[in-house]
Amino acid sequence: xxxxxxxxxxxxxxxxxxxxxxxxxxxxxxxxxxxxxxxxxxxxxxxxxxxxxxxxxxxxxxxxxxxxxxxxxxxxxxxxxxxxxxxxxxxxxxxxxxxxxxxxxxxxxxxxxxxxxxxxxxxxxxxxxxxxxxxxxxxxxxxxxxxxxxxxxxxxxxxxxxxxxxxxxxxxxxxxxxxxx
Length: 181
Hints:
Blueprint: E1 7-8, E2 14-15, H1 26-34, H2 41-57, H3 64-84, H4 93-104, H5 108-115, H6 119-126, H7 134-143, H8 148-180
Antiparallel strand pairs: 1-2
């Protein structure tokens, strides 16, 4: 079933077995589970296999000790994923806000209320049909706790994209005008 002592040894791996023949005390096991660390991709795969094996058994069929082990393995896997496989941070304002809404478990209507704007204005901003004003950005910063630097960078990116799109549109309409004369 589950290998004992999946603990990082600091040399690029986890210890997969308990080499001593003596019986491990519950205090030692708790200490091992508390300090569980993953040091590489192979170890991560091994831990994920252990988690998968336990999940196939089913949480309802695991005893209390196995559940603690499952939680420790899951926490170690999550810690490794956060450090070694971070999710990309969205660059566009609507994506940043959507991520924050997901994290806060609130819908767009509730977000609009929280930010002090109408559902219509919130929708226009989220669909890039209206530029966000300073009050809106301030509310996103203070009420949704979105970093001001992310907000400024996303607005700057929006402005660059709009200018590029506008230049393309002007150039196309100018070319079209010349050919129609």
